[in-house]
């Protein structure tokens, strides 16, 4: 019986080579994770652009010392760069998730990953910046963990880049895509600008509202150690220090480093004679004005601040009013006369003050060391709002 032409053609046609499903699913998983990580990382930084700016300033100081003083010129632009770089992360992450001009987006993403990879490797290899600020204060990573994270993202990028054939569908084509990206950019920049002019939306620092500073200055649990001793060629570990003097001490290992370390280790306030007044500050009702650096403090907002401090001194709530600064007494005396600040002041470490409030100046309301409220200088409250906290 003769074979039909159609049957013969079908028999001769090679089977179609469909792409392997596991690789397709793996690529899509890498694509989703890559985009999501960039969106999340950018939003976390935009939540606290002031903190991100502090981290950038730290990098600029390191580069100025190691390479050229030219990098110090970027310190003044740190707040702008903070919002620009963080917004770029969000926008690139959204572009990846929408597959909007995916090939071009991936090339820009590669440049950003290489840049971040250099920063984290340099920090890790030369022990320059102990926390890259990749996820703000939400998640602190060691330098080598940060570099490993960047290598992981580069791996995700490679999978997505070399398997773009599985990601051909664009979720926001043409004008829709352009409008979506414009909205994403506006939202990212708006979120950052709002946080820059006020306090972070979510506070991940030890001095957030509701936290007790005295409690966080104490370790959650006592330190536990493992002691290693040797005797006659035998090595043995002890949970308690042995009383048998025939054992020779070798080493000691802390078993609970995270649990035995207080969340706040450097909070200390001193008067002008150098006396420690920390306990005094953490007792009773207090309205504290934080001025990190008088040279950079916003002077235009001191009229409402001074009015609030003066009213608080007369309050029936017995509110202690004071200022804390990291500026030297000589410079601060000149500054407080310029702004008519008439309250007693004390000194503390600049880094501590930057963690306490993300504005310069800023206000902190305390009751026996518990943080009841924090105010940016754009949000100075009236006395009634402060009194009802106690």
UniProtKB/TrEMBL annotation:
The entry's keywords: Membrane, Transmembrane, Transmembrane helix
Keyword Nucleotide-binding: no
InterPro entries the UniProt entry points to: Methylamine_util_MauE (IPR009908)
Topology of the protein relative to the lipid bilayer: Multi-pass membrane protein
Ranges where the Methylamine utilisation protein MauE domain occurs: 25-162
Highest taxon of the lineage: Bacteria
UniProt entry tagged with the keyword tRNA-binding: no
Pfam families in the cross-refs: MauE (PF07291)
UniProt subcellular location: Membrane
Transmembrane regions listed in the UniProt entry: 25-44, 77-98, 105-124, 144-163, 175-196
Broad class of where this protein is predominantly found: membrane
Record protein name field: Membrane protein YphA (DoxX/SURF4 family)
Organism per entry: Hymenobacter caeli
């Amino acid at each position: 019986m003769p074979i039909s032409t159609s049957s013969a053609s079908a028999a001769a046609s090679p089977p179609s080579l469909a792409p392997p499903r596991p690789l397709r699913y793996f690529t899509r998983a890498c694509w989703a994770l890559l985009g999501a990580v960039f969106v999340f990382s950018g939003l976390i930084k935009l939540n606290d652009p002031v903190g991100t700016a502090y981290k950038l300033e730290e990098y600029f100081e390191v580069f100025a010392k190691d390479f050229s003083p030219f990098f110090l010129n970027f310190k003044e632009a740190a707040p702008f760069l903070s919002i620009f770089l963080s917004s770029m992360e969000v926008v690139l992450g959204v572009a990846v998730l929408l597959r909007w001009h995916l090939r071009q987006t991936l090339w820009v993403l590669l440049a950003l990953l290489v840049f971040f990879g250099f920063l984290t490797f340099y920090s890790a290899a030369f022990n320059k910046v102990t926390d890259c600020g990749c996820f703000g204060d939400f998640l602190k990573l060691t330098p080598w963990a940060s570099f490993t994270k960047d290598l992981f993202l580069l791996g995700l990028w490679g999978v997505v880049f070399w398997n773009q054939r599985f990601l051909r569908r664009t979720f926001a084509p043409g004008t829709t895509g352009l409008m979506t990206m414009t909205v994403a950019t506006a939202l990212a920049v708006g979120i950052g600008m709002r946080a820059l002019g006020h306090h972070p939306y979510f506070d991940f620092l030890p001095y957030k509202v509701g936290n007790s500073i005295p409690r966080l200055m104490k370790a959650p649990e006592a330190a536990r150690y493992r002691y290693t001793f040797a005797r006659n060629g035998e090595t043995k570990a002890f949970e308690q220090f042995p009383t048998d003097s025939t054992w020779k001490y070798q080493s000691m290992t802390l078993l609970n480093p995270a649990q035995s370390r207080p969340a706040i280790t450097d909070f200390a306030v001193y008067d002008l004679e150098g006396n420690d007044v920390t306990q005094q500050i953490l007792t009773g009702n207090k309205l504290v004005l934080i001025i990190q650096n008088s040279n950079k403090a916003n002077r235009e907002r001191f009229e409402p601040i001074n009015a609030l401090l003066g009213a608080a001194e007369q309050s029936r709530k017995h509110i202690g009013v004071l200022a804390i600064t990291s500026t030297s007494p000589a410079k601060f005396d000149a500054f407080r006369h310029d702004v008519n600040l008439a309250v007693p002041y004390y000194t503390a470490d600049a880094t501590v003050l930057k963690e306490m409030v993300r504005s310069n100046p800023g206000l902190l309301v305390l009751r026996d060391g518990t943080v009841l409220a924090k105010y940016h200088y754009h949000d100075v409250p009236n006395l009634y709002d402060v009194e009802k906290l106690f």
